[in-house]
Amino acid sequence: MENFFEQRAKKVLKYLKVTERYDEKHRPRPFFVEFTGSPDSGKTTTIDELYKFFKALGFKTRRPQEGAEVIQIPRTTPLYNIRTCDYARTQLIDQANDPECDLMIFDRCVFDAYCWMLYWRAKNLLTDEEVELYQQFFLSEFWVNKLDAVYFVVCAPEVAMKRSKAVSLTDRLGNFTNPQTIKVLVDRFQLAYNILSPRFPQLRIIDTSKMDKQEMVEYFANETLAAMEKKIAAEGVVKAV
């Protein structure tokens, strides 16, 4: 028997599976979702499960490799985050007109880069003017409005450290996986959300500190399906299965 999430997802899939999918005038474009946030907040776990869920239901689902796993620029320069953003941004642009894609889930995209510019300004490696320049570029309407849902996923540093050590071969702390840095990153994502959310209604900030894995996955499945349903309803094409 189909569960509540499966029933909703199948209605979304029916919306996507139209005969003509050639350009934005004649077909619905794919749905795009971005996850970003602080370390060990549950992003990867959630992305994995959402990918499997939608894939199993017949969605042509894509999950681009995270830019951090591809880009070889040292992480000691703002160019690193600029480049990882560009890696994801180009896929967002290209896939928007691909009829072989129904859903793409990003592990960090343009909103992630916006937030990281605040980090590099605090390190005095960017000026205020440079931060403004890059941030405005990342938020260009040419691509940012294609993101249907964006999640800033955060959790308390002590919870993040506990999750990190649950499966680990070392007790060494990384540059970004220590309580002090995690706290700074959580604060920056909160600041960015406060600035951007009035302009971008697709933004959500979610604290997963008190959620277990099942609760996280169900929460984000519900939020993602709700974003899809809202878009379909706005286009006036909701149909019963």
UniProtKB/TrEMBL annotation:
SUPFAM superfamilies with a match to the protein in the record: P-loop containing nucleoside triphosphate hydrolases
Gene3D superfamilies recorded: P-loop containing nucleotide triphosphate hydrolases (3.40.50.300)
InterPro entries tied to this protein: P-loop_NTPase (IPR027417)
Designated name of the protein: Thymidylate kinase-like domain-containing protein
Organism of derivation: Candidatus Yanofskybacteria bacterium RIFCSPLOWO2_12_FULL_43_11b
